[in-house]
Specification:
This protein starts with a helix and ends in an 8-residue tail after the last helix. The chain is of the alpha/beta class. Helix content is 29%, strand content 16%. A seven-stranded mixed β-sheet has the order 3-2-1-4-5-7-6, with helices on both faces.
């Protein structure tokens, strides 16, 4: 409550004030719900890269509310768990793939075509690796209205850091993963996206397309940045 009060004082109207968890890892479910309550749900289509076992991700709740979308993960065991424990649905396309900047665009485009979707409302990226380049590559193919992407909260603004892409490299649990918040902002702003929030846990950043940005207060990355609070 103290953290939320501080956020409300420093950044009134910040979507980070609307946090709650259903199936998300931390506070993402509430922030996503608030964002779409402001801009409208559109065609209700999502893509989540790094969907894990389906029981802890950013789009399971949306699926239960009638959305349709795509889950992608590199871990065969996690996708096997989904197949055995999450009821199959014609509204969900599941793909196993190690996503890179080289294959992200065609992979997502093909999955959306299988789903019969022409637009994308939410793109969630959490691969504990080359997230920044994968996201930048994807935006050449799709233009989601909302982006949720993991940032590395070890490096606050104005630090600009991103890992060097290495094919097949998996996260070893250290600080060497992803990219700093400023690096994401610098990459996505020219592509037509504005940062509107960071989760209180300091894990995910939320961007909206410029045509929806007026629905949210305009703050800098320094003002919106949240440090790592993984204990939450």
């Amino acid at each position: 409550e103290r953290i939320k009060n501080d956020i409300a004082l420093r950044t009134p109207g910040n979507p980070a004030l609307y946090i709650y968890k259903v199936y998300s890892q931390f506070d993402e479910d509430g922030i996503i719900a608030h964002i779409f309550s402001r801009i409208g749900e559109g065609d209700r289509v999502f893509v989540e890269i790094g969907c894990s076992d389906g029981l802890e991700n950013n789009t399971h709740k949306l699926l239960l509310h009638g959305w349709r979308g795509v889950w992608i993960d590199a871990d065969a065991d996690k996708l096997r768990f989904i197949a055995e424990n999450v009821p199959a649905s014609p509204r969900l396309v599941i793909r196993q793939a190690f996503v890179s900047a080289g294959n992200a665009g065609p992979l997502v485009a093909a999955a959306l075509a299988t789903l019969g979707a022409r637009t994308l409302d939410l793109l969630s990226v959490d691969i504990d690796g080359d997230d920044l380049n994968v996201l930048s590559d994807l935006l050449r193919t799709v233009q989601p209205r909302v982006i949720c992407t993991e940032y590395n909260a070890k490096f606050p603004p104005p630090m600009k850091l991103s890992i060097i892409a290495e094919p097949g490299r998996l996260w070893s649990g250290d600080d060497y993963h992803g990219a700093s918040l400023t690096s994401f902002v610098d990459a996505l702003h020219p592509l037509g996206y504005r940062l509107i929030a960071c989760g209180v846990s300091g894990v995910n950043a939320f961007f909206v397309r410029d045509d929806d940005a007026a629905q949210f207060p305009d703050y800098t990355a320094e003002q919106l940045f949240q440090p790592a609070r993984f204990e939450l």
